[in-house]
Amino acid sequence: SGNYYNQGEIRKKELEQSCCVLGIPASDVTVIDHRDLPDDPAVEWDTQLLATLVLKHIEAKNIDLVVTFDAGGVSGHANHISLHTAVRYNVCKLLWVPPWAGCRVLVLESVNLCRKYISFLDVLISCLLPTDALFILTEEETEQAKRAMQCHRSQLLWFRQLHLLFSRYLVVNSLRLL
């Protein structure tokens, strides 16, 4: 629930506001508040527990595409890495039987620090490198993504302000099939 600084309720509301900006209805937003899954950048979550929760959500919502972090969690955040590990666990163990049959998983690729903060200049580099999926946002989509991120006021520390200005992830994202 994002309760690392005892801001869980605030961060839930910010998530709902952000999703609204992106056109995602509140009924499609699920916040898992589980005592064994604390919001803590230093805590690795239990793979089987998280894999089970993710799979239940996929089944309940009849999801056919999952997009997740890569093994580096994009920022090295232990919770992000745990999510990648749990999704990978589900794919390795359960993908070949229903309800996972037909569900694809795309993994966001982390890039080096230089590429991470060259914004739209990374589009050319990304187009030249091999990848399974490349998403290039329009100017309007980039502005929408920025507005959505600005809804997360409790998390907009100085380095995230820089992210809003310079991050390539607001302009281009390369993904690989898992």
TrEMBL record:
<dbReference type="GO" id="GO:0005783">
    <property type="term" value="C:endoplasmic reticulum"/>
</dbReference>
<dbReference type="InterPro" id="IPR003737">
    <property type="entry name" value="GlcNAc_PI_deacetylase-related"/>
</dbReference>
<protein>
    <recommendedName>
        <fullName>N-acetylglucosaminylphosphatidylinositol deacetylase</fullName>
        <ecNumber>3.5.1.89</ecNumber>
    </recommendedName>
</protein>
<dbReference type="Pfam" id="PF02585">
    <property type="entry name" value="PIG-L"/>
</dbReference>
<comment type="similarity">
    <text>Belongs to the PIGL family.</text>
</comment>
<dbReference type="GO" id="GO:0016020">
    <property type="term" value="C:membrane"/>
</dbReference>
<dbReference type="InterPro" id="IPR024078">
    <property type="entry name" value="LmbE-like_dom_sf"/>
</dbReference>
<dbReference type="GO" id="GO:0006506">
    <property type="term" value="P:GPI anchor biosynthetic process"/>
</dbReference>
<dbReference type="GO" id="GO:0000225">
    <property type="term" value="F:N-acetylglucosaminylphosphatidylinositol deacetylase activity"/>
</dbReference>
